[in-house]
Amino acid sequence: MADRGESPMEKITEKFHEEDSSSSSSSDSDDEKKTSSFQSDKFRLFGRQKPVHKVLGGGKPADVFLWRDKKISAGVLGGASAIWVLFDVLEYHFITLVCHALILVLAVLFLWSNASTFINKSSPHIPEVHIPEEPVLEIASALRIEINRAFSILREIASGKDLKMFLFAIAGLWILSIVGSCCSFLTLFYIAFFLLHTVPVIYEKYEDHVDGFAEKAMIEIKKQYVVFDEKVLSKIPRGPLKYKKKD
Fold first, then answer.
1. Backbone angles phi, psi at 133, to 5 degrees
2. Helical residues (DSSP H) of 66-162, grouped into ranges
3. Out of 132, 134, 183, 231, which residue is the most buried by the measure of CB atoms under 10 Å away?
4. Which of residues 47 and 196 earns the better pLDDT score?
């Protein structure tokens, strides 16, 4: 059963996990052992309180990202790499690809239908293809909730209550704008997809070493922030926002 504080995206991935629990039962048992032995008092990157598999939502998506099944993970990453090379490197247009694929499918089905009618004196059964409504509605609802949550976070940052969060948001958006100006959206999406298939599995393997190094780095960053706060931020005049009530 999912936790009450679980996000909609985690609920969707949990549903896929329940549909095929036999394929990932071994990984679930491993995760339960890791959860029971997880040390909450030890420093963990980003303050996480769960194993990496649970942080990624659990189920099939987490199994793919953490390479529980190397064939499936390699196939997904290989497919994404092929799409990136096809559209970004070779500059093959999406509409052109769709049209060519439909031409090929229609030609094959047309020839197959006529050949079967000529040989077997009966028309072949072409299966109907349709998109189920429930998964689409669930994904759309989850995306809507996540987008609204992002808007809420941006509103909280813009309210001026947390200066540290504001500076981190500005720095992150500035870095993202620089990266976005150097490559296309598809390349940026592929880089994020590639990192999602490599960084978590490497981190899970060497998490103790990474967490130890991250703890030292966070201590140093906090020291530098205290110095920056005393010399710069504390000298900036700030006051609480006052709202005038309308009659």
1. -80, -40
2. 70-84, 94-120, 133-158
3. 183
4. 196
